[in-house]
Design brief:
This protein is an alpha+beta fold and 200 residues long. The chain is 48% helix and 24% strand. It has helices at 2-52, 56-63, 70-93, 101-106, 187-193; strands at 108-112, 118-121, 125-129, 139-145, 149-154, 166-173, 176-183, 196-199. The radius of gyration is 52 Å and the shape is rod-shaped.
Amino acid sequence: MAGNRKQATSRSKGGKKKGGLSLWLRLLIFVVILAILAIGISYLVIRSGRKQSPGLNEIKVNKELPLKTPEKVAKKEAKPQGVKESVTTEKQKKPATKESPASASIIGTWVSTENGSMLTVKKNTYSIDFPSVEYRKPMQGAISISTNAFTVINESDDKECGIEPGTYSFKFVDDNLIISRKKDLCKKRTSSLEASWFRL
């Protein structure tokens, strides 16, 4: 009887030990499975995150301009040059306007070498200031300049010249402006303009 009791207690102790081991083993296996699942999920999350936001290397590649083939470069370079050439040829074909370099050079203030009168030529107007007191007021009016000639019309209140136009030619000799009458009935204007002038 006593032997049977000892065997029963030893069996129950052995059963407890085996049961305890199997419980710990189950917990360990469960923890390992959880760790494997966590690693797998984190790997998938990281991988999907990389697809959505490209890495530094991918950004560099995306920011780079597309490679230009020699044919594309030649076409792009040929186009602007052709446009520039056409613009320059159009400009060269255009005739000289009223503001050509020769006509523009007459614009300014000039002093007569003969009597000291001052001739001021602007784009559309002119005036002559006389040094002598015998002239009542400056002569002024409109002017139309071409390449080597100009036409003047005095103001309407000019009693001596009226509104009759006068045409004059001009040239430059040693930086002096030489004005010569072509056609003008106003003697006062002719005597004032027909002279040699130097730039002030």
